[in-house]
Design brief:
InterPro entries: AAA+_ATPase (IPR003593), ABC_transporter-like_ATP-bd (IPR003439), ABC_transporter-like_CS (IPR017871), ABC_transporter_ATP-binding (IPR050763), P-loop_NTPase (IPR027417)
Pfam families: ABC_tran
Largest sheet: 6 strands, mixed
GO molecular function: ATP binding
Helix content: 25-40%
Distance between the termini: 41 Å
Strand order of the largest sheet: 6-7-8-3-9-10
Strand content: 25-35%
Number of strands: 14
Structural class: alpha/beta
Family: Belongs to the ABC transporter superfamily.
Bound molecules: adenosine-5'-triphosphate
Shape: elongated
Protein name: ABC transporter ATP-binding protein
Length: 318
């Protein structure tokens, strides 16, 4: 079976707030799936339904092939859920905390191995209240892994961490995938989702706006790429300031697939095109024929942040 989770037409209301409004998606086994969106989009509520913590108002949810509404306890035996650190006792040590969670599991993994996996062995005897933010997050992930789950749920695992601790946590999450587990996480950092997740679902106001790999979404929704060219030896005598001679701009604008040419303040030309690969070949051909000389050439695509802006008309963190 290649599917870890199936969600069909999921609806969850809190009185008059529709927190999740008809969401459908599947998560494949062994992938890192990210639910992205701003605060209040419905990510946590969706996760809580998948974890069997909240009953949906409508829709079908299957986790590890089990209907969550009918058999929430069977689902709980197959998943690992990262608790926010409010769930820890500050005076217990790291080893004692993981040991406590191990005592709840039917087939616990060895505590020492988990501490090593999460780089917590040096903190084994440290009380939880003395850990840094990144160490606490790693501890909560160790506790989520203690029951040897097939599917691991992480709700905003990197929120509040500095960039270095975030990067360290990405390595942890990739290592969890390498063990063959499925990871479902939420984040409101689009660049994190782009770097970390195999596939993402973008949520806003309880709805799923887009679903796919980060690159698929970027290519589908933002087809135009920017090709940066920095020509050399093309400024006409006396034209100063690194200006590019108009004939060059005209020639580039005439290349097949180029929809626009802009000029940056530092002597680059920016070519907009939906066919960056063939344009790169054209430019290389021009250079080979001696009609164009350039000192740098690079392609930039949009980001998931731009995808969100395209879909909603606003930035994620306005
Ligand atoms: N227990 C609750 N009772 C009432 N309303 C709630 C409850 N939990 C969430 N909501 C509301 O449901 C909507 C979705 O919230 P949810 O926490 O699922 O979003 P989120 O995308 O996870 O946001 P965040 O990133 O802030 O956690 C919001 O409007 C929120 O105010």
């Amino acid at each position: 079976m290649d599917t870890a989770i199936v969600v069909e037409h999921l609806v969850k209301r809190y009185r008059d707030v529709v927190a999740v409004d008809g969401v459908s998606f599947t998560v494949r086994r062994g992938e890192i799936f990210g639910l992205l969106g701003p605060n209040g989009a419905g990510k946590t509520t969706t996760l809580e339904v998948l974890e069997g913590l909240r009953a949906p108002d409508a829709g079908r949810v299957e986790v590890a092939g089990i209907d969550v509404r009918r058999h929430p306890r069977q689902v709980k035996a197959r998943i690992g859920v990262q608790l926010q650190d409010a769930g820890f006792f500050g005076r217990l040590t790291v080893r004692e905390t993981i040991g406590l969670f191990a005592s709840f599991a039917a087939r616990p993994r060895p505590v020492e191995a988990l501490m090593e996996e999460l780089s917590l062995q040096d903190k084994a005897g440290t009380q939880v209240r003395h850990l840094s933010g990144g160490q606490r997050q790693r501890l909560s992930i160790a506790c989520a892994l203690v029951g040897d789950p097939e599917i691991v749920f992480l709700d905003e695992p990197t929120t509040g961490l500095d960039p270095q601790a975030r990067r360290a946590l990405w390595d942890v999450i990739w290592a969890i995938r390498a063990q063959g587990r499925t990871v479902v996480l939420t984040t409101h950092y689009m660049e994190e989702a782009q770097a970390l997740c195999d596939r993402v679902g973008i949520m806003d106001h309880g709805r799923l706006l887009a679903l796919g790999t980060p690159m698929e979404l970027i290519e589908r929704l933002l087809p135009e790429a920017r090709v940066y060219v920095r020509p050399i030896d093309e400024a006409p005598a006396g034209a100063g300031g690194g200006d590019v001679a108009p004939p060059m701009v005209d020639r580039l604008r005439a290349l097949p697939g180029v929809t626009r040419v802009d000029q940056t303040g530092d002597g680059h030309l920016v070519l907009l095109t939906a066919q960056p690969e063939s344009l790169l070949q054209q430019l290389a051909g021009e250079a080979h024929e001696g009609r164009l000389r350039y000192s740098s050439l690079r392609v930039e695509r949009g980001t998931l942040e731009d995808v969100f802006l395209h879909l909603t008309g606003r930035r994620l963190r306005d």
